[in-house]
Design a protein that fits this description.
Bound molecules: adenosine-5'-diphosphate, magnesium ion
Number of helices: 26
Helix content: 25-40%
Structural class: alpha/beta
Oligomer: single chain
Strand content: 15-25%
Shape: elongated
């Protein structure tokens, strides 16, 4: 019986299906299949055709074939380990069925003598006779065998037969869903309904038919659902009423007058976006996105000072303590002395920590800097009005929503990220927020010169390093792995450290993932204080810290990194006024594709452009940050192949927002496709 208009069936537990027990359910759960709906997206990769019936004389050894034969005689040897055998034939020849580990009774039942059966299995040959060992399918009802079965990438523990049974059962019971798209949208996909699209998706004739209407429709459903959820969250947050903050030219000037540079136009524009939000009566939830070194910190500090002057507390969180300290130090320098700011560090003595916590409660502290732990610890604020979160691209939509809720209604939220996102993905990654983008680099910046070098030319590199050290510059030397691993052929930072330390005694520091946090900070601080000229490290220097004196970055085994990651690393240098360089080292000559990628990096200094190109060359799953970003991978939609669908969905969402359209009709779509728990109370 069909379930009419009932999507609950699709969201129900797998055990609702016949033939799915606890064991199968556990296996599927490991593959992130939690309900019936999830199973729909495990697509057939190929299929087995059992419809062709062969004569025995035409059988091909090694092939999987279907035959109709008549069993003539049983041979059940009463000897251990010898298989049971049944001699069979058709008009054209003879074949034996061989059974290991099968009981006589069972064999008699499935292969009764002198009655035709249909059998499918792999054809073998033994001493000149055809044989078929443990046939996959046997039945007297040929219609049960002579089918086409899809082949899925199976999970261990589930046979193809079981899997097909499960899928066929679902397809048979597929509820008829009410169409959520309007006619115009549907027209773009040849009026393909959801139900018929799903049937086609599992039809073996349609394997990898990515360009077909049914496929596009389903991909579009997925994209629209993802955008729509984000848009709903955004709308919901915008509806939250708060006490507005005031801002004055004075606070702005107090900071600006101390800077040796003037703000870029993009910095000014972002500042205006944020100040307008702070000044409004609805809660801010904004992302400040800007390439590495684009100057986001100063923007955030100016806005923080406004909030403090309006009588609220501010909290700034960074991913590492050293970064939090760096921001704290800068604020200490720029803020008027009467403003009370503190760094909450895990290393401070307990008394000190207690004092800070207490004073935050008593409203004696205006602004606190620390890591994300500030939120995990149960710190309460007297009057928190603004949360700034630096380098947060690893947070997903869900975490951000929690964060926004936690601060309370009066608390505005600003997130800052240097991870550039290809345009098609902005709405699915950051669609829950308003976005300000800083594209323009500060004017005094010189482009970092990027070179590639073969590892065999390391002497040239060393000579270059010597010259730079002589000029008072500092160098990052990046190695991808901690310890020598022959298999991965990565350069070890430990060996490199030893090697460099011999050439530049007492002038090299080593930093890798196994060094404890506290020691890590000491090393970085010493490097910041120019106690060493070279810092050998794995990629941990990637995150946000500003080293104005570092001028050269050398990246070994550069082909192990993605373009965006190389761009982020390169952004660590060239903050000062001197010419900076980035040397990419390679073990062997580059392949054509690798050359293409490196040339993009050499010719562009724009993180957005680089991430687009990177995505085109490597697929979007691999771009920096994505795997951890909490962005769910699309099941069907592909941001490169389906760019048009992404743009179409973006347009539709804008229309929905503009007309303030009721989205009730998308209820089923949202429940099925997306994070229903987030929007539960919204639709
Ligand atoms: P990011 O956007 O990567 O967080 P930062 O805020 O750390 O960048 O800024 C990088 C460096 O650029 C800092 O040393 C900062 O003082 C400097 N800076 C910021 N804005 C400007 C500007 N408009 N002109 C020149 N230098 C700037
Ligand atoms: Mg930063």
């Amino acid at each position: 019986m069909k379930n009419k208009n009932n999507y609950d069936y699709l969201l129900s537990d797998l055990t609702k299906l016949n033939g799915v027990g606890k064991k199968t359910m556990e296996i599927l759960k490991k593959k992130k299949v939690n309900n019936i709906f999830d199973l729909l997206w495990k697509l057939p990769k190929s299929y087995t055709d059992r419809t062709l019936v062969s004569k025995v004389c035409d059988l091909q050894i090694g092939m999987n074939q279907t035959i109709r034969i008549v069993p003539l005689k049983y041979q059940f040897p009463r000897v251990r380990n010898l298989p049971n055998k049944v001699n069979c034939q058709d008009q054209s020849g003879k074949i034996d069925c061989i059974f290991f580990n099968s009981h006589e009774g069972y064999i008699r039942k499935i292969l009764p003598l002198n009655e035709e059966v249909t059998i499918n299995g792999k054809i073998g040959n033994y001493k000149g006779r055809y044989q078929i060992t443990n046939p996959t399918y046997i039945s007297q009802d040929s219609s049960l065998i002579e089918n086409i079965d899809n082949k899925y990438s199976l999970t261990e523990g589930i046979t193809e037969k079981t899997y097909n049974k499960i899928i066929n059962q679902i397809l048979k019971n597929l509820p008829t869903l009410t169409e959520w798209h309007d006619d115009d949208t549907l027209q773009s996909f040849g009026k393909e309904s959801w139900n018929s699209a799903i049937m086609k998706l599992h039809d073996p004739a349609n394997i990898e038919n990515y360009k077909a209407n049914f496929y596009k429709r389903l991909a579009y459903d997925e994209i629209l659902a993802s955008f729509l959820v984000n848009s709903e969250i955004r709308k919901k947050i915008k509806k939250i009423k708060k006490v507005s903050k005031k801002f004055t030219e004075k606070a702005y000037n107090q900071i600006i007058n101390q800077l040796s540079f003037s703000l870029t136009n993009d910095q000014k524009a972002s500042l205006e976006d944020i100040n307008n939000d702070l000044n409004s009566k609805s809660k801010m939830f904004r992302l400040l996105q800007g390439d590495v070194g684009s100057g986001k910190t100063i923007v955030s500090l100016i806005t923080a000072l406004n909030v403090i002057n309006s009588g609220f507390q501010v909290s700034l969180m960074a991913p590492t303590e050293i970064l939090a300290r760096q921001h704290f130090t800068l604020a200490k320098k720029l803020f008027p002395k009467k403003i009370s700011i503190e760094l909450l560090s895990s290393k401070s003595p307990n008394i000190e920590k207690k004092r800070i916590v207490k004073e935050l409660q008593n409203n004696k502290i205006n602004m606190v800097f620390g890591t994300h732990a500030i939120f995990q610890k149960k710190i309460t604020f007297a009057n928190l009005g603004y949360i700034i979160i630096d380098e947060q691209h690893k947070f997903g939509v869900r975490q951000r929503k929690l964060l926004s809720d936690k601060g309370g209604d009066n608390c505005d939220v600003l997130l800052m990220s240097a991870t550039p996102i290809p345009r098609t993905l902005t709405m699915s990654v950051y669609g829950d927020m308003d976005v300000s983008i800083i594209k323009e680099k500060p004017k005094n910046r010189k482009e970092v010169k990027t070179y590639s070098k073969l590892e065999s030319k390391i002497d040239d590199v060393i000579n270059f390093v010597k010259k730079e050290i002589k000029d008072g510059n500092q160098i990052f030397w990046v190695c991808p792995l901690i310890e020598e691993s022959k298999k991965l052929d990565h350069q070890s930072s430990v060996t490199k450290y030893k090697f460099l330390n011999k050439l530049f005694p007492n002038n090299v520091a080593l930093l890798h993932g196994k060094i404890e946090n506290e020691e890590k900070e000491q090393i970085l601080n010493k490097f910041l204080n120019k106690e060493y000229s070279i810092l050998v490290s794995t990629t941990i220097i990637e995150v946000g810290i500003d080293f104005p004196n570092a001028n050269v970055i050398i990246i070994e085994n550069a082909n192990k990194f993605g373009l965006s990651q190389l761009h982020q690393l390169r952004g660590r240098v060239g903050r000062g006024t001197k010419q900076a360089s980035c040397i990419l080292m390679f073990k062997s000559n580059l392949t054509v594709n690798a050359k293409k990628r490196i040339n993009i990096l050499k010719s562009s200094n724009d993180g957005f452009e680089i991430s687009e190109e990177d995505m085109k060359l490597r697929g979007f799953g691999d771009i920096l940050g994505f795997k951890q970003s909490g962005v769910k991978n699309f099941r069907l939609a592909d941001p490169i192949q389906n760019e048009d669908l992404f743009l179409m969905a973006e347009k539709q969402i804008k229309q929905i927002e503009l007309e303030n359209m009721n989205i009730d009709k998308y209820k089923a779509l949202l429940k099925l496709y997306d994070q229903a728990d987030i929007i539960n109370d919204m639709v």
